[in-house]
Write a structure and sequence with these properties.
Mean pLDDT: 76
Order of helices and strands: EHHEEEEEEE
CATH architecture: Sandwich
Number of helices: 2
Distance between the termini: 26 Å
Shape: elongated
Strand content: over 45%
Radius of gyration: 19 Å
Number of strands: 8
CATH topology: Immunoglobulin-like
Number of domains: 1
Low-confidence stretches: 6-13, 23-34
Largest sheet: 5 strands, antiparallel
Helix content: under 10%
Structural class: mainly beta
Length: about 140
């Protein structure tokens, strides 16, 4: 069963405070002249892992890079498209581009070696397994 980590209009939960501070659009602050976009992100917790799901329409896995360094998972990408068509003697050319970078400081109790990612139809899913000591255990009262 999936448990949301970020929810609206609810009391804060421990991991939500981390997320609030760490997800930001770095490019908008450091390169104000560059076009940037902020892809939709859903971060949730399931029994054995955290899941980060990022909507990246128009991007393929070759357009996105993931990096883990000093406990920070960084997701970067760049979108470029070009339209060049001619009809009835008129030429129409259009170009667009944008880049993004998102960073997440992972909780200490994750299995960094077990992180995996997949991308299908412009949706990136990063699975971050919890370390054995971080898994919840239901304790039966005798």
């Amino acid at each position: 069963m999936l448990h949301p980590i970020i929810t609206r209009n609810t009391a804060p939960i421990p991991f939500a405070a981390l997320v609030e501070d760490l997800f930001h659009d770095v490019l908008s602050e450091s390169r104000p002249l560059a076009r940037s976009f902020r892809p939709a992100l859903d971060l949730r917790e399931e029994d054995g892992a955290y899941l980060a799901v990022v909507e990246l329409p128009g991007l393929g896995k070759e357009d996105v890079t993931l990096n883990l360094e000093d406990g920070v998972l960084t997701i970067k990408g760049e979108k470029q498209s070009e339209l060049d068509e001619e009809q009835d003697g008129l030429r129409h050319t259009e170009r667009s581009f944008g880049s993004f970078q998102r960073a997440v400081r992972l909780p200490k109790e994750v299995d960094a070696e077990g992180i995996s990612a997949g991308m299908t139809n412009g949706v990136l899913t990063v699975r971050i397994p919890k370390a054995a000591k971080a898994k919840r255990k239901l304790i039966t009262i005798n």
